[in-house]
Design a protein that fits this description.
The chain has 343 residues and is an alpha/beta fold. The chain has helices at 7-12, 29-37, 46-52, 57-67, 83-98, 112-120, 132-140, 162-169, 185-193, 203-206, 215-223, 246-251, 257-264, 268-290, 313-326; strands at residues 18-20, 41-44, 73-77, 103-107, 124-129, 145-149, 176-179, 198-201, 229-232, 240-243. The strands form 2 sheets. An 8-stranded parallel barrel has the order 1-2-3-4-5-6-7-8, surrounded by 7 helices. Strands 9-10 form a two-stranded antiparallel sheet. Helix 2 packs parallel to helix 4 (57-67). The N and C termini lie far apart (40 Å).
Length: 343
């Protein structure tokens, strides 16, 4: 049988080089468990676990453990504009380590403190990046891998294509994960044949039996085409990939003039970010759990083009694994000779 092993699968201790990305508000314990049980790895999103799906983090992790004993991961958002939030995230990291989590994905800040805690417990940290300069900073922080968020991703997409990112990051000597635009097994295989060590899917796993969002959200993902995905600033202040709706078209996609002015100010930008953060949490939770309304925003990436039905999460993992075996397995990593890491 063709081996599916990559540097990522060996570090994470999984069978299939496939991550179910952490998604607010869509990640629930049952979805995480289903992906991991099938051989990939599901990533817990703590805010979603606690504030959307109603689980204390420790009890939610233990629920996942009752459903599968396979490896799981956790997302650690390390943006530091709120000391209260940072302290809460540090406590959550400790809880996850105590409960046996050993794979972590960091986002939005300097990962050194996470790496120090996780490495001491024998764990691994990957960091979200959108271009080389951020990857170099993450490597200075000691991360063991990179998640390359491209211009087809859901949520806060990056500015560059999957091909451009592997060209920029492939010589840095760390496993690189492709995040964005992968909605079916053909795109999964294509990403790995580019030289990526794994693939992260998000939108595809919203349209699954195990995801606890409202059926209207799943239906919209199944029915959407790539051209239905637009970037709007009106939810978080920076471009967010959402499904085009009459409401999105009516209000436009640019942030309002007051918000733009506040985001430019040294003192006012943190207040505006807080306002946007509260708005973001409320709007997306309402849309995900409450069904359709005329003012909802539905997060999704361009991978909607590959999503044709709501189905079990484990079936998606198994189909991707089989397609990769038929293709002869992952491509070998490109030699790290393109340019020095300091470039």
């Amino acid at each position: 049988m063709v081996a599916l092993s990559t540097p990522f699968t060996r570090q994470a201790g999984v069978e299939v080089p496939l991550i179910c990305g952490a998604m607010y508000p869509c990640t629930n314990p049952e979805l995480v468990a289903a992906v991991s049980a099938a051989g990939g790895i599901g990533i817990v999103q703590p805010l979603s676990m606690v504030y959307v799906h109603g689980h204390d983090l420790r009890s939610g992790l233990r629920l996942i453990r009752r459903l599968t004993d396979k490896p799981i991961g956790m997302n650690v958002l390390i943006e530091r504009s709120s000391r209260t939030y940072e302290e809460r995230m540090r406590r959550w990291l400790d809880v996850a380590l105590e409960e046996g989590v050993r794979f972590f994905v960091t986002s939005l800040g300097k990962p050194r403190w996470v790496v120090d805690r996780v490495s001491g417990a024998g764990g691994v940290v990957y960091h979200d990046v959108t271009e080389r300069k951020w990857a170099l900073k993450a490597l200075e922080g000691g991360v063991q891998g990179l998640i390359a968020v491209n211009d087809r991703a859901g949520g806060h997409a990056g500015p560059k294509s999957a091909e451009a990112l592997i060209g920029e990051l492939g010589d840095l000597g760390r496993p690189v994960i492709c995040a964005g635009g992968v909605g079916d097994e053909r795109a999964f295989v294509a990403a790995l044949r580019l030289g990526y060590a794994g693939v992260q899917m998000g939108t595809r796993f919203i349209a699954t039996d195990e995801c606890r969002v409202h059926p209207d959200y799943k239906r919209r993902i199944v029915e959407a085409a790539e051209d239905d995905i637009v970037l709007t600033e009106r939810v978080t202040g920076v471009p967010l990939a959402v499904i085009r709706t009459p409401h999105v078209e009516r209000v436009g996609t640019r942030a309002g003039p007051l918000a733009r002015w506040m985001l430019r100010g040294r003192r006012t930008k943190y207040l505006m970010r807080t306002i946007y953060g509260l708005q973001y949490a409320w709007k997306l939770k309402r849309a995900a759990l409450g069904g359709g309304s005329s003012r909802d925003y539905w997060q999704a990436g361009k991978s909607v083009g590959g999503v044709t039905a709501v189905e079990p999460a484990g079936e998606i993992v198994r189909r991707c694994a089989e397609a990769l075996r038929e293709a002869g397995g992952p491509a070998p990593p490109a030699p790290a000779t393109a340019r020095p890491p300091s470039a």
